[in-house]
Amino acid sequence: MQKLENYIQKNPRQTFSILIIMALAPFLINLGILPLFADEPTRAIVAMEMILSKNFSIPTIGGEFYYNKPPLYNWILALFYLVSGSYSEFVTRLPAVIPMFLFAVTIYYSVSFFLKDKRIAALSGILFLVNGRMLIYDSMLGHIDIFYSWLTFISFMLIFYFYQRKLWFLLFFSSYIITAVAFLSKGLPSIVFQGFTLIALLAYTKNLKKLFSWQHMLCGAICLILISLYFINYSRQNPNLEGYFSTIWDQSSQRTGAKTGFGKTIIHIIQFPFEHLFHLFPASLLLLFCLHKRFWKKLMVNDFLKYTGIIFLANIWVYWLSPETRPRYLMMLYPLLFIIWAHAYYTYRDSLTKSNKAFKIILLILALVVTLAVPAAFFSGLDKFVPYLTAKILFIFSACLLLCYLIYKFKNEYIIPFIAFLLVVRLAFSWFILPYRLNNQTEIYYKNASIEVGKITKGNSLFFYQYNPNVLEIPFHHRLIFYMESSRKETVKFTSKDRLPGYYFTFDRDLNNPNAVLLKSYQGNLKLFKVK
Question: Domain residue spans in the chain?
Answer without folding.
Answer: 88-347, 365-438, 443-531
